Amino acid sequence: MARLRRIVVPGQVHLIIHRVRSGSEVFRDAADRLNYGHALADAALSARVAIHAYALLPAEVRLLVSPEDAGGLALLMQAAGRRYVRSFNQKYGSTGTPWEGRFRSAVIEPDAYFLPCLRYVEGSAEAVASLGGEFDGLSSAAHHLGLRVDPLIADHPAIWGFGNTPFERHAAYRRFAERAPGEGEVATILLAALNGWVLGSREFAAAVADQTGRRPQRARRGRPRLATLSR
């Protein structure tokens, strides 16, 4: 079966997940994460992609980003990945790439899904409990909790709904991050991202389909209803 063309909508928020091969680790210490962060910052500038959130986990990279054009996501991930893999292989005496293949992504409707995706990306329930020491490049949670200013992050307007001042926003985000996700929330996010679907309402998905010319969500199973066939 042919692989579906990736959905990329300039100006919209996208969730990215890039996983490594089974049994591999792409970040083994804080220095690795900081190295990838530098590569990501330079790639974002050249690819014209705004980074809203990130997490650099041993087995995967998670990002929330907004590209200025349709080629931005691919340019971002290729540039950051290639630069990092070169230094990773030199450091550890390895060859090839630790990545399992192409990155996965989903266009998200920010009004409904930016904050849940932010909590998913940062793993903030755990981050809130562990933060307080020296920044180690693990995620952007420290930025959104007001513990440091992360130069890699371009704040998304959805954050402003937490309050009128930075103090109000940081405190409100901490309360939000400490709450466990609702039932099925993470599964819904992963289903969209790993399959390349749009994460949002039917109206939002339809608008994306009109703009990109690609089916935005999983097709419904079963035969069409008779009423549809008779038209």
Low-pLDDT regions: 222-231
Q: What is the total tally of β strands? A: 4
The quaternary state of the protein chains shown equals: single chain
Number of helices: 9
The CATH topology name reads: Alpha-Beta Plaits
How much strand?
5-15%
What structural category arises from helix and sheet content? alpha+beta
Shape: globular
The separation of the N and C termini measures: 30 Å
CATH class: Alpha Beta
Describe this structure in words.
This protein has 231 residues and is α+β, with helices and mostly antiparallel strands. It has a single domain (13-211), classed as Alpha-Beta Plaits, CATH 3.30.70.1290. Helices cover 44% and strands 13% of the residues. It has nine helices and four strands. The chain has helices at residues 30-47, 72-92, 110-122, 124-130, 141-144, 166-178, 185-195, 202-212, 226-229, and strands at residues 13-19, 49-57, 60-67, 104-108. It is globular.
Quick overview:
The protein is an alpha+beta fold. It is 44% helix and 13% strand.
What are its keywords?
231 residues; Alpha-Beta Plaits; four-stranded antiparallel sheet; alpha+beta; 9 helices; 4 strands; single chain
Question: What's the layout of helices and strands?
Answer:
Blueprint: E1 13-19, H1 30-47, E2 49-57, E3 60-67, H2 72-92, E4 104-108, H3 110-122, H4 124-130, H5 141-144, H6 166-178, H7 185-195, H8 202-212, H9 226-229
Antiparallel strand pairs: 1-3, 1-4, 2-3
Helix pairs in contact: 1-2
